[in-house]
Structures
1.
Amino acid sequence: MVDLSGRVALVTGGTRGIGRAIALKLARQGCAIAVNFMRNRRAAAAAVELIEAEGVKAKAYRANVGNEAELHAMFGEFQHEFGRIDILISNAASGVLKPAMELTRRHWTWTMDINAATLLHLVQHSVPLMGDGGGKVVAISSLGSVRAIPQYSAVGASKAALESLVRHLAVELAPLNINVNVLSAGVVDTEALKHFPNRDELIRNSEEKTPAGRLVTPEDVADVTLFLVSDAAKMIQGTTIVVDGGYHVVA
Ligand SMILES: NC(=O)c1ccc[n+]([C@@H]2O[C@H](COP(=O)([O-])OP(=O)(O)OC[C@H]3O[C@@H](n4cnc5c(N)ncnc54)[C@H](OP(=O)(O)O)[C@@H]3O)[C@@H](O)[C@H]2O)c1
């Protein structure tokens, strides 16, 4: 049991999939929750309803996290409504799925911007809203940051940049009592996987090779996120925690 009552969390992409599981997990510990989304208003309204059912304040903000002006506007509304932030979960991601030989400069820039640069801007907006007690930042990454996965070259490179940025932010923000870490997940069967041309193969391969014998679930990711934002994890700084049932250690 982790007591997060009185705390405020912002979860980007918190209305579906992994982000929603994290938002609900934090809400169950008493944390007020702001979720962000891009298009799907129905999913956003449903997520807010589920979070409120846990007895905490919840709001959804529509903004493309890759767009600086939209981010700025979102933080204006968020600050007005919540006044502070204790926990930032940088979870929303996008990107072009193609073999490297088919990637254009535009594909590359879009993917790097939305998956890596966004963390920088989220943190720059969030840190002034974190009080003297500091705060927690968790960025969600994937094994594609360190492994070659078909179609995943741009997204994998963006996740590697994200993980490097986390190390630098961690060193810069540790004196402010802010922990910055990465949670890197194995394959999770969310709607995001429907965009992968090789979805079935990814799932089959992961099920076969994961020592734990099953895919990672959004709840698995949420459980470890809760640990990372708890006081028990206060000396975990600038690192990548892998949640994949052992997939990455198999030869
Ligand atoms: N699924 C996997 O196998 C897996 C594995 C490892 C890591 N991850 C990482 O986990 C994170 C979440 O993935 P997921 O599988 O849970 O995805 P998902 O089910 O597709 O959910 C994506 C969420 O992000 C929001 N979103 C997408 N683009 C956005 C943008 N530009 N601005 C704001 N919100 C945006 C979506 O909002 P709308 O509903 O409005 O579209 C939705 O709430 C990502 O960082 C992903 O790389 C996923």
2.
Amino acid sequence: MKEQLLDLAKKRRSIYALGRNVDQTPDEIASLIKENIKWAPTPFNNQTTRAVILFGANHEKLWDIVAKRLKSEVPTEEAYQKTLNKINGFKAAFGTVMFYTDTDVVRRFENDFALYADNFADWSEQAQGNAQFAVWTSLAENGIGANLQHYNPLIDDEVREAFGIPAHWNLRAQLDFGSIEGPAGEKEFMDDADRFKVLK
Ligand SMILES: Cc1cc2nc3c(=O)[nH]c(=O)nc-3n(C[C@H](O)[C@H](O)[C@H](O)COP(=O)(O)O)c2cc1C
């Protein structure tokens, strides 16, 4: 069996110690991200996934927004310091992909394909998963580490304002990426017997 893709899937891990010592340019990385999203499958090829790719001051601005927004959500100053340390780790990375879903397109397909109307919202999330996995794995193939965060919906309004995001784009995830400055943690797996059935 060929296992090239499987080997790459194993290379994709959550890396939290990220830096800016990457060999590629922002243009090269942005192009890789765009191609992966374009080639990830979507239902009826409806292409609902959008991405905003942040580098430099824009990347830092995102994580400053997260830090500021979380201040009122965390109960104590001590807890906030911990949160801030975590967010500063994301800010120390090289860039961030913000993944969005275009809700106008989801709604259009719900209207146009009544038989499948109940599926399009779920399918847009599945399409997100396809795109996120593809981007994350392709970055890993190029020696770039990443981790996936979800500060939406807390940050949605500030981010929309800061980066001029259309109102009908719904923020689904933030993948921050950069040079790998520390290893991934151990990964544990549940029993295959509880997870898979192979019927021959
Ligand atoms: C849908 C989804 C949501 C996730 N959300 C977060 C998150 O909000 N914060 C985080 O640090 N990791 C998040 N992760 C990463 C998982 O915790 C991680 O993938 C899992 O523990 C397996 O570790 P690995 O990525 O190193 O293989 C998410 C992963 C997925 C697929």
